[in-house]
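stuck on this:

***
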Amino acid sequence: MKRTSVWYLIVAMAAALLLVGSPALAAKTIKIGGLFDITGGTGGVGAPYADGVRDCVKSINEQGGINGRRVELLDTDYSYKIPQALAAYKKFKNAGVVAIQGWGTGDTEAMSPLVTKDKIPYMSASYSEHLTNPEVTPYNFLVGTTYADQARVALKYIADTWTDKSRRPRVAFIYNDTGFGRSPFFDVDYQKHHFPAAESYCKDVNVDLVDKQIVDLRATDATPQLLNLKKSDPDFVIVQETGVMSVILKDAAKLNLRSKFFALNWAMSEKILQQAGDAAEGCFWTNPFGLWGVDAPGVKAMRAVTEKYRPGQPQIVNYIQGYAAMTVMAEALKRVGDNLTGEAVKDALESLRDYDTGGLCSAPITFTKDSHKGSMGLKIYQVQGGKLVPATDLIMLAR
């Protein structure tokens, strides 16, 4: 063998040893899974959410990444179908992701035993309460206030502001027949644990539940369900839907329903408000996130990023939700340092105490080893004069 060949071999072997021995060199990227609904039943809110996650990642990388490593987002449109979500999860796992930005309730439930077994932290856009107990789902994390907590806040607000002393307020629920739709309202027994919800809470606040109606996520007409509601005559209707909320509000206006509507977080946005027009006037909304025009440092920074990538395009609240979720995950990844394992990311998330997102979330984010409820606060808004106006200050809940 020639002397020069030996020299090249020695250099190559040394380089290989350096790569093996240095985590910083061995892992040049941080791989994150992204499970999004762009074209499925919740695509109207899923697409802007995905854009928020993507833009946050793009901005992080342009600023040098996390601890010098580029974030690689492996995102998939699963069209709100659980089998496609499970197939995407296998790809994420095989690709070596250290965490996942997820989406819906049904698919998050289906994957929860898998992420626990594989030790991959999973931050879903489903805010179902039964995904927040580390004894049950140790690798699931929620940034938003849970659906059940939102519904309880709505019921407490209704009870506290009710002025007719001759009777109790009458309430109805509208939801879609999915895990997401049922989650705020009905108790869940999940993996041998019981999670109470709004239906059982009605008695605690002296509210009468008089009706429950199912409206499909893609319904174009809610008249039959609203005619049933007219017979039961509720004072308030709490709604767990997405874009179909505009159909519900417009059909309710046509039928002259006297009921006031209370949208949980996915059932209202600037887009839905625009679609519903005058029919949305007076509608209440539980919202755990900031809005585009909020004068807060985190929102200002996000607006600057968005303007760079999407000039002249103000974003709706669902975009901010995705941006906020990725911001929180990025903070945990930053705290991990070089030891990029799922267990280390989980520990870093559980180290967050009153983490301030600068207004992206209404309340600071805290995760503990006993609770993976990230946000315990929200504001109630009301549509007034065609605008979303805060009807309350920040409402903080007990963990």
About this structure: The chain has a mean pLDDT of 93. The domain at 147-287 is CATH 3.40.50.2300 (Rossmann fold). The first strand starts at residue 29 and ends at 36. The chain has two domains: 23-144+292-377, 147-287.
